[in-house]
Amino acid sequence: MISLLGQIFRTGILTEPHPDTGDGPRREIDRLHDDILNILGRALTIRQVDAGSCNGCELEIHALNNPYYNLEGRGIKFVASPRHADMLLVTGPVTKNMENALRIAYDCTPDPKLVVAVGDCGCGCGEVGAMFGESYASCGAVDNVVGVDLRIAGCPPTPLALMQGILAAIRSRST
Amino acid sequence: MFLCDDFPIEFARQPGLGAPVWRGRAASGEDLKDFAATVHLQGGRLAALWGSDERQRHGGPSTGAVAGFRLHCVFGVSQGHACVSLDLPGDDPATLVYPDLSAIFPAANRMQRATRDMVGIASDGPDQRPWLRHGAWPADWYPLRHDAVHVFGMGVGFPNLPSDYDFVQVGGEGAHEIPVGPIHAGIIEPGHFRFSVVGERVLRLEQRLGYQHKGVEKRFIGMDIGRGAKLVGRISGDSTCAYAWAYADAVEAACGVEPPRRALLLRALMLERERVANHLGDLGALGNDAAFAFGLTQFLRLKEDWLRLNAEAFGHRFMMDRIVPGGVAGDIGAPALAAIVEQCGVIAGEVKKLRTLYDEHAGLQDRFLTTGIIDTALVRELSLSGMAARASGMILDGRAHRHEYTPPSPWTTLGVRPITDERGDVAARVAVRFGEIAESLRLLCVLAVGLPTGETRVETAPVAGAAGLGVVEGWRGEVLVGVQFDSEGKLARVHPHDPSWQAWPALEHAVMNDIVPDFPLINKSFNLSYSGVDL
Q1: Pick the CATH number of A44-174 from 3.90.180.10, 3.40.50.12280, 3.30.470.20, 3.40.50.620
Q2: Chain mean pLDDT for chain B
């Protein structure tokens, strides 16, 4: 136990400051936090749905919860059920075999809900997004299946880009 | 020669610097079956199985010997890999049948079913349930046939019908089923698990996968070498370096190209960095799944440091698109190499401390020990490779010397020590990961310090009609990529094979007789790819 506490003490707090959303000064972040509270209650909850990714995007979404980005420490939490979620974070391309499951998850998410498409495949952009596209097995971009509020491009998008995107999605709803 | 002298199949060694591969052609289904039985008797494995359409292609005449279809089987033998093809002439479904190999190698079952879904050639075995086809395209439409064009060439527009799957039922008093998925309760890929349980005890687990099937193999058809390299790096994002290297090996073998020495060492450097990154993440997640959140936080911290240096040194956190046919894209400078060596020292120290904490934590060890056991006999039976096989006592590592096997360059001179553990439980898979991190850190220092100067890439021109097979020991296990060019030098067929094909059935066995709450822990101890097998 002592050695465990020692390790925690030595590691210290590694959480880095909020990323800039690119549309204003640092104070914007504080306003965003107020927005989260105003719009969605106490916190933002996210249900992540992998609808056909290569798992690259999932690696970076996982990284959001590491101590550097500490998304949960900012009141943004990943939940197990879409019924508990304010936001669906969807990676793609949406496969035909996942199309129905994604629709069900979408319908289960209570209003007002936000849908964020993640990655070039989920957004249907860039060389990689075009590479998968639509086919006998793939519906392509997420917005071919459910309505999308915001797109976070990248292959895969970095954790910083994901944080900026998630915050921007909340902001878009608040204005 | 190889295996036995009087065998009716002639083998020729594939050229190139990649892993040792021998190619041969079976004259009949019986020959193939006999060969498979011989391989099994001698302790070999079924490494991969796929089919291809060799009839008239879009652009010109077929380059194969006969018009029809072809079955490709890759076996893991003591010297390396033996790739045996079997021609199935004609277009008539009645003749497009080959002998069932799943009675010899159970791992063949899902691969055979997937081959039927994709190409329309079937085994004569009893299990003909669809595997990748859920209902999104008709049963008599086979995506990888060259005449399977439908709308816009990619088959857009079929109705997406609901499908039923014939799960094996478990009877008896108190037995009931727990269906899980396809969407799981976490940030994880989709798949369906059907548990048959009594109380908390798992009697049987049956997986149904294919939810990630996005038509990767059809996308490859007609691509040039460069675009193929980009796509192959997105088959399983966590193994992007392993796939890119296996594809590069296959293309280089087909085109008669040898990458420069500096490029080979840089590939090894990236592959080992990929291995360490994944092991760090898994060790954290394994702690977390046993309610030890401290472990997750600590290991994710180390993983983030690791990925940030990847971005700095290679320009991408997962080093995607850095390994390309002919060598590597971009080069690395002396400061980045120094940073890599320095970081290896730091990470080694941190991991050592964390290993002590893991080893001495009674609650954690209680969850790890004797949970999710698979023994060596089962590992052999299921043709398992890689980290999970080594955690069940198999000394099998494509990077390491063993009896009759010489690893390909650059491993030959690095003296890789395969890390093994005999216990076969979650604790063993944790221990092997710890051991492999230490060994990879050692290799990384050797690679970074001894990196020769020189070219990093040579031109790779396609050779019409040529074929190649690449095999790379990825962090999960053996990654294979088979490549075939058409008469115009475009990709006619690319088949990527993930080690998860063999490991998913092993997971079904590992969870038997454990309790349902242990499943996430056992599952994570394997951490298999869905996208890599669903394609």
Answers
A1: 3.40.50.12280
A2: 91
